[in-house]
Design goal:
Length: 178
């Protein structure tokens, strides 16, 4: 299924590495997007593409929190509530997001669109509160921006060419999320 749907992308990823096995992590991301989560079939296909033992592929995928082994929403929203972000109101902003979705941490919406979870540092502390939708970053989040983002995701999906909201450096006027 991965090769059927994303052959060009698979070949592009492989072209970046001198050895196939080095492409394991980006290949797992691609498989996860195509299969929805890392099913046994997905693991076996990645292993076949990279000429690895499926057990090795599975063990790597189990180690990292960004790989999922059970069904998730189409959009996985990861919200950083780590200390530097918490200092500018991330926990409060995360609660606002949960309220907008009507979900608790770790839950998936009934329509299958959203899974939401808090996470540790996303390496975007300077633009907190920050969240990730699948692999894209959305920064300086406020309740209004999160409402807008959810609406965009519901109506037109996640743009392939980058974040809906552009990078905006924090200034003295940037809301804190409180
Ligand atoms: S602590 Fe939140 S992005 Fe670094």
């Amino acid at each position: 299924m991965l090769l059927e749907q994303r052959r060009e992308k698979v070949e592009e990823i492989l072209s970046h590495y001198p050895q196939k096995r080095a492409a394991l992590m980006p290949m797992l991301y691609e498989a996860q997007e195509v299969y929805g989560y890392l099913t046994e079939e997905a693991i076996r296909e990645v292993a076949a593409i990279l000429e690895l033992d499926p057990t090795e592929v599975y063990s790597v995928s189990e180690f990292y929190s960004l790989y999922y082994h059970k069904p998730t929403g189409k959009y996985i929203i990861r919200f950083c509530t780590d200390m530097p972000c918490a200092l500018v109101g991330a926990e409060h902003a995360y609660q606002q997001l949960l309220n907008l979705l009507g979900l608790k941490n770790g839950e998936t919406s009934a329509d299958g669109l959203f899974t939401v979870e808090h996470c540790v540092c996303l390496a975007a502390c300077a633009t907190a509160p920050v969240l990730q939708v699948n692999r894209q970053f959305f920064e300086n989040m406020t309740e209004a921006k999160m409402r807008e983002l959810l609406e965009t995701l519901r109506t037109s999906g996640l743009p392939e060419d980058g974040p809906v909201m552009k990078f905006q450096p924090r200034t003295a006027d940037t809301p804190t999320g409180f």
